[in-house]
Fold:
Amino acid sequence: MDTVFNFPWWLRVEHFLNIIFVTFFIRSGIEILGTFPRLHTNVHTQAGKQWAEFTIKEKPKHKYYAVGSEYEDYSPVISLPGRGLLGQGRYWHFMVVMGYVSCFLIYYVLLFATGQWLRYIPPSWHTFVEAGQNMISYLAFVSPEPMAGYPFNAAQQLAYATAIFILPPFMIFTGMMQSPAVNTHWPKLTRALGGRQMIRSAHWWGLIGYLVFIIGHVTMVMVHGYGHEVSKMVFGHSDEPLGAAVIFTIGLAFVVFLHVWATRASLEKPRSVEKLHNLIVRPLTRQLIKLPSRQELDPDNVTEHFRASGCPPENDEYIAMLAHDYEDYYLEIGGLVERPMTLSLADLHELSAGHSQTTMHNCVQGFSSIGTWGGVPLATILELVKPLPGATDVVFLCFQNMGRDDALYPEGWYYESCPLMEAEQPQTLVSISLNGEHIPIKNGAPMRLRLETSTGFRSAKWIERIEVVNRYDIIGKGRGGWFEDFDSYDRLQMI
Ligand SMILES: Nc1nc2c(c(=O)[nH]1)N[C@H]1C(S)=C(S)[C@@H](COP(=O)(O)O)O[C@H]1N2
Ligand SMILES: [Mo]
Structure:
């Protein structure tokens, strides 16, 4: 009897850490959901085709409806950190992933090594019937008996089995498959799962699963007696309800304190959260840069209406160039290179020799689209200009100024940068056509970057100049891109 009823110290520690992890996941997850508060089944995320929507915002009456204005500013009470701060929400979500996955691996090893896992496995099919009967008892306010030889009843056993063996791997998998570095490296798997938006929707159902479990679990603890139950969580037995109730309540207060601390850190000192994130998460994302995008999607299945992000440049130069049908457009490529160059659109077409790739776009907000992008691999252009020894990064400077051109944003020229390794990936493309035509203005005419292994904001549009550099931290505010400088987005946003 003893061994079965025993809740070893590592199980109790893991249980407590889980309260922290899961609540952080939920709040930061709500933040992430809020920046594109719609769920779709179809990868094209056409406006109006969502199957669920979590917004009460009216469509803004801008002259130009950009997806940036879809952000929902949830309250910090329900989302971490709230106020539509996607970059910060993602920082927390991914930092917690690193902690959670590490702890869970240790937990699984101990669970299997000690044989504890067996008590979560239903002894027979009858357990499912019994669980149904248990639910009916609960509805009649009668507490069901534990199963013979087990510390809990059938309904509890199934709920725990789901929470331990099904939900975590499901969430880790559906979370991972939303990473552009991962889903573009395994495009067939992504498709087999029903596509990017089915995966996002499934991840959301996992959230619902967790919420249902938590509500049920907490209700049960109350029904069976708070002191009695938390005594097992604190001491591993139910003999010290009073002391346990005090200790556990202090523990819960500590969890609340952590949430308040994290929320305030993000709202008041976003840069320290960024530093912490870089320390914890960058070791993983640096590895993901090595995964090339291998997409060859069906060119017949391209998106009809792109949800364009950002407003086009409004300066004289750009407008004159449009009026001249881009004849006076020259892409400048310079910086730390042996042979700086200027290339006209005609030069780029010649270099491209009809090369194109049909790929999926993963906006950091969560929407997706598919396009056939024509152009020249950046690697080809780099071979021509020959980066000098010491060159580390490639910087893309745009015609667009966010503060000037987009009512939503404060200031600054749009730019982006990427390490040479990312620049040389086969599907990193200097793109001059979309679906066989000139790139439409809203999608970055006449030339844009396609950085398929990363989230969408890094694919800079309306590019004027490409510069090879040996440091990017002296450009802009030094974080490698406009969204990095102003919105806490990670420069290596591979997830
Ligand atoms: N210059 C510039 N490039 C930009 C943006 C922008 O606002 N300005 N938005 C980025 C974001 S957030 C996304 S999701 C993609 C959108 O590309 P699309 O408009 O072709 O869908 O462009 C990226 N490139
Ligand atoms: Mo985006």
About this structure: The chain is about 45% helix and 15% strand. The two ends are 46 Å apart (CA to CA).
